[in-house]
Write a structure and sequence with these properties.
The protein is mostly beta strands and about 240 residues long. The protein is built from three helices and eleven strands, in the order βααββββββαββββ. Strands 1, 2, 3, 4, 5, 6, 7, 8, 9, 10 and 11 form an eleven-stranded antiparallel sheet that branches. Strand 3 and strand 4 form a beta hairpin. The longest helix has 18 residues.
């Protein structure tokens, strides 16, 4: 388990000073990395045995707007293993109140082939905390059918991470760029993303979206690989 104090930086926010989901995801990504490091499972050690963690599902609930220079106390822990999925939870507190909760689901794959690795094949020990928390239920799929096509986007160098694919933090930026987000008045209250197939540099994503039942639903089809890349939904609120 890792606990750390975080200050929201000026480059982490939209014009209305509210926290960008992608900035929050970057903070989460680093917290998870540092927690794994402390358990003796560094990224380089995993790469040495040709294995990496890949995010497959993400859920974030934000109770109130988070602003530039807010001081947050962050906590993350590897909570449990369910089948081949590792569940990691994140808690962010402001003035003693849990203001953000995030649930992430990960799988381990071979770096070179992307073949799934079963937990019993993983040569590192990860502590399971099994804490009863405000975990976010993420369905097998979202209502991402029959959406309106909005635009195409090509994966670029700046989108990539150490796994040489579109970084998970970029998916929310891609989604919000095609939604009717009011940069003066809105903030993001809820996020769910299901990562279906990775995208690599040069791939073209066909992006579609619509509002359904108070949620903005997004899907991305990778026309280069002819596979679905991701689906997501968002709930927006007013500051």
């Amino acid at each position: 388990m890792l606990e750390k104090n975080i200050t929201v930086a000026s480059f982490d926010v939209y014009p209305n000073s509210t926290l960008k989901p992608s900035a929050l995801q970057k903070i989460m990504q680093q917290l998870a990395r540092e927690d794994c490091d402390a358990m003796g499972c560094t990224y380089n050690q995993m790469r040495d045995v040709n294995m990496v963690f890949v995010l497959v599902k993400l859920g974030i609930d934000i109770k109130k707007p988070i602003f530039a220079y807010d001081e947050l106390k962050a906590r993350t822990y590897h909570n449990r293993v369910s089948g081949i999925t590792s569940v990691r939870e994140f808690e962010f507190y402001r003035d003693g109140e849990e203001i953000i909760h995030a649930t992430t689901q990960w799988v381990i794959v071979k770096y070179d082939t992307r073949r799934l690795v079963r937990p019993k094949e993983f040569p590192f020990e990860l502590t399971e905390h099994n804490i009863d928390c405000a975990t976010i239920e993420i369905p097998r799929s979202l209502d991402a059918k029959e959406l309106t096509e909005r635009e195409e986007r090509t994966v670029r160098l700046s989108d990539l991470d150490e796994n040489d694919h579109l970084n998970n933090c970029v998916y929310s930026d891609i989604s919000l760029d095609i939604l009717p987000y009011d940069r003066k008045e809105d903030y993001v209250k809820e996020i769910r993303i299901i990562f279906q197939h990775e995208a690599k540099i040069g791939d073209t994503l066909k992006l579609s979206s619509d509002e359904k039942g108070g949620r903005f639903v997004v899907s991305a089809y990778n026309s280069t690989t002819e596979m679905n890349c991701f689906e997501a939904d968002f709930v927006l609120g007013k500051i």
